[in-house]
Write a structure and sequence with these properties.
With about 240 residues, the chain is an alpha/beta fold. It has helices spanning about 1-25, 25-45, 50-60, 90-95, 95-110, 130-140, 160-170, 185-190, 220-240; strands at about 75-80, 115-120, 150, 175-180, 195-200. Helix 6 (about 130-140) links the parallel strand 2 and strand 3 (about 150). It is elongated.
């Protein structure tokens, strides 16, 4: 991740600066300065909206939003994300933002295609309950009939989700709901299983362009967007290597 790269470069800058203080070598001095400059550059580019937004949009705009189809839908697949179990809260409040966004988009699609069945997916990671079960309960609390939801609580990642659901989705019409930055990679995993997903991106990171000087300043939220982008870029690279 960009912030990890920044810390590594800063650490190297300190190490070579200490070496330079001992041996007065021009080489160690140049390396220390270079690492310091690179760390500043990476942090600046990763946290500045003008640069980061262009990179994020290059992935997020690869697929259009979902509109009502001319043919019936068999399934609406909600890929797993995250949650934190807290029985004092309603299920919808236990979902992390990514799971919440995917569920709301799936319900929007269900309203367009009430003939479809929802499929929730994903294990719980370190949580005591699978994400598929948590999202299913949240969907029921929002009015989706329980008999219109299938839970797949065992997949640990997108590749496993595609493999586990392949037999159920073969020759079926289904919407694939996940975050916009994740859609390109997720779609390819399902295509690799011989399936034909209809992309349904949600949770777009970039909705508009910065409009003033303040909104163009570096920010932590922009750095978070860049982290998501870099995660997907690395994921696509691994996907390409494994093909």
């Amino acid at each position: 991740m960009p912030l990890s790269i920044v810390f590594i470069l800063l650490f190297l800058a300190i190490v070579f600066s200490l070496l330079h203080s001992k041996n007065k070598s021009s080489y160690t001095h140049r390396v220390s300065q270079t690492c310091l400059l690179l760390s500043f550059t990476v942090l600046l580019l990763s946290s500045t909206p003008f640069f980061a937004n262009q990179l994020v949009k290059s992935i997020e705009k690869q697929d259009d939003v979902f509109y009502q189809q001319n043919i019936p839908l068999d399934y609406i697949v909600i890929l797993g994300c995250g949650h934190t179990t807290n029985e004092a809260l309603p299920e919808i409040s236990q979902l992390q933002l990514c799971s919440f966004q995917r569920l709301i988009e799936a319900i929007r699609i269900y309203q367009l295609h009430p003939e479809a069945t929802l499929i929730t997916s994903g294990d719980g990671g370190s949580d005591i309950e699978a994400n598929a079960i948590k999202v299913k309960r949240a969907a029921i609390s929002l009015g989706i009939p329980e008999d219109k939801i299938i839970a797949k609580p065992t997949p640990k990642d997108t590749q496993e989700e595609a493999a586990i659901m392949s037999s159920l989705l073969l020759n079926k019409q289904f919407a694939l709901v996940t975050n916009a930055s994740h859609i390109p990679r997720a779609t390819q995993y399902f295509i690799a299983q011989g399936l034909k997903p209809i992309p349904a991106p949600t949770g777009f990171s970039v909705n508009d362009e910065p409009t003033n000087f303040i909104s163009n300043l570096p920010s932590a939220s922009t750095l978070k967007q860049t982290n998501k982008l870099w995660h997907e870029v690395l994921g696509q690279l691994v996907q390409w290597i494994n093909e």
